[in-house]
Write a structure and sequence with these properties.
EC number: 2.8.3.10, 4.1.3.6
Helix content: 25-40%
Main location: cytoplasm
Strand order of the largest sheet: 11-10-7-3-4-5-6-26-27
Distance between the termini: 24 Å
Radius of gyration: 22 Å
CATH superfamily of the largest domain: Glutaconate Coenzyme A-transferase
Strand content: 15-25%
Pfam families: CitF
Protein name: Citrate lyase alpha chain
Number of domains: 2
Number of strands: 27
CATH topology of the largest domain: Glutaconate Coenzyme A-transferase
Oligomer: single chain
Shape: globular
GO molecular function: citrate (pro-3S)-lyase activity; citrate CoA-transferase activity
Length: about 500
């Protein structure tokens, strides 16, 4: 069957189940009641602190076929997933589903567990490194499930993903399980991606390298959700957790793109008092933020909030009074961690509050402008940030699809050519964000506006910006690079790409 954007999707996928095809960004075909929470009781004299991960696995009654979850606030510095999976593997347990908010190169040991049948499915919003390569090569027993950040929160809350045991990397925890990410050698800031796991898992085990006196305040994750606490020597490498390397690009091409994107934002009329904004941590995206900052200062504009994974650069804008509040699902650098610890106006949000389309109002719905990137984009403005030019998995939507759907103005910023390949294609390798949610593409060679946004087209006519059709931009790039050959794929599906509402927007097949 074909879904809303014309992609052939099987009605049933082995290892995934019955498919609900993507039906449009705002259709929300299946809204479920939130899943019940399994409660347990802890008496006054019971001790939650255990001696080891093995003792925790005994208490959780870990067994074949279970789903275990992890979060990625420690990013490429995370030790917890590998520590836990090593002890699970040592027990000879098989058929484990790993529901991690994201997978990084540091999680390479999972590849051997996949080969041995210990791990048979992975559910994540982003996958990179050796695990992504292994999945792309068809080594995983069941198709991986790629979700958005908001979609993951929705799936956990609705019971689409049932977590048997959630493992929480806790930078600071007391002996009763109150957790925050603010203190200790592994401090990483906001823990927004772990919230749903803790609220809905059957068992929650906090792994910490920093036991602090009770009560551990402020409390991000409450003791009422945490069953056990396991002290370990280290939960992560600070070098991989917060690098502090998010910097504005110095590349003249990137700066040109940023300046044109700022021109689009200004022409839209959305740069005004009370505006809201989100951008990523890439060099061009931060250059757009710099351009916005200059406009706001010059015109004395005060915004309401900035959101997302917060960077130090956005913190600077906040501290200069350009935004009143910050909504943060994860801190990207040390300055963001510091800001989050110092003021209640820098507010943590859960992944569900951030982008779940099936709750009573996600933060993304209140975004005015979002700046996003793209690996590929087609002439219908559908975007790929999940697979590379070779068809292999190299990332994932994260909050891309969530913010694109919610914002009043969604701008893609990108070089027109990447590694001598054109950005724009007739048919992209994988669709994760539908074109109906993308408003503008800004490249160094010109700007294309989605024909759905005739209002923007009219506003941009009054500027000197180089506006053209996306087909014209595609033609320019192909004259420079040639037209690339289509990627040949096999029949077997290695990953299922879910839209934020749980429908299937695309599948990823093994490449030949």
């Amino acid at each position: 069957m074909k879904n809303f954007i014309g992609i052939d999707i099987p009605e049933y996928i082995e290892g995934y189940g019955k498919v609900i095809p993507f039906q449009g960004a705002y259709e929300n075909p299946v809204i479920k009641k939130k899943n019940g929470v399994r409660e347990s009781a802890v008496g006054p004299n019971e001790n939650k602190v255990l001696e080891s991960i093995d003792e925790a696995l005994d208490k959780a009654n870990i067994k074949d076929g279970m789903t275990v979850s992890f979060h990625h606030h420690l990013r490429n510095g995370d030790y917890v997933l590998n520590m836990v999976m090593e002890r699970i593997a040592a027990r000879g347990i098989k058929d484990i589903t790993v529901a991690a908010s994201s997978i990084f190169p540091v999680h390479a040991p999972l590849v051997e567990y996949i080969k041995e049948g210990i791990v048979t499915q992975i559910v994540a919003s982003y996958i990179s490194g050796p695990v992504a390569k292994a999945i792309s090569e068809g080594l995983l027993n069941k198709p991986a499930i790629m979700q958005t950040h908001g979609g993951r929160g929705r799936a956990i809350e609705s019971g689409d993903i049932h977590i048997d045991v959630a493992f929480v990397a806790a930078p600071a925890a007391d002996n009763y399980g109150n957790i925050n990410g603010l203190y200790g050698k592994s401090a990483c800031g906001a823990l927004g991606y772990a919230i749903a796991d803790c609220q809905y898992a059957d068992k929650v085990i906090a792994i910490t390298d920093n036991i602090v006196p009770y009560p551990n305040c402020p409390i991000e994750i409450s003791q009422i959700y945490v069953d056990y606490i396991v002290p370990v020597e280290s939960i992560g490498d600070p070098e991989g957790i917060v690098s502090g390397t998010t910097k504005i690009t110095k590349d003249p091409v990137g700066l040109k793109i940023a300046k044109m994107a700022a021109g689009v934002m200004k022409a839209s009329g959305l740069i005004k008092n009370g505006m809201s904004f989100q951008t990523g941590a890439g060099g061009i995206s931060l250059a757009v933020a710099q351009e916005l900052k200059d406009i706001m200062i010059k015109e004395d504009i005060k915004g309401s909030f900035a959101s997302g994974g917060i960077t130090g650069y956005i913190v600077d804008m906040f501290r200069e009074g350009l935004f009143e509040y910050l909504f943060d699902v994860q801190c990207f650098d040390l300055k963001a961690v510091e800001s989050y610890s110092q003021t209640h106006k820098h507010q943590r949000m859960s992944a569900s509050m951030y982008g779940n389309p099936h709750n009573k109002g996600a933060v993304v719905n209140n975004l005015d402008i979002v700046i996003l990137g793209a690996t590929e984009i087609d002439t219908n403005f559908n975007v790929n940030v999940t697979t590379g030019s070779d068809g292999a998995i190299m990332g994932g939507s994260g909050g891309h699809s969530d913010t694109a759907a919610g914002a009043k103005l969604t701008i893609i910023v990108s070089n027109l050519m990447k590694a001598r390949l054109p950005l724009i294609k007739d048919k992209i390798t994988t669709v994760n964000t539908p074109g109906e949610t993308i408003d503008v593409l800004v490249t160094e060679r010109g700007i294309a506006v989605n024909p759905r946004r005739q209002d923007l087209i009219e506003k941009l006519k009054a500027t000197n910006l180089p506006v053209m059709s996306i087909e014209e931009l595609k033609s320019i790039s192909e004259k420079l690079t040639g037209k690339p050959k289509d990627i040949e794929t096999e029949d077997n599906i290695v990953a299922v790409v879910e839209y934020r509402d749980g429908t299937v927007i695309d599948v990823i097949r093994k490449t030949k």
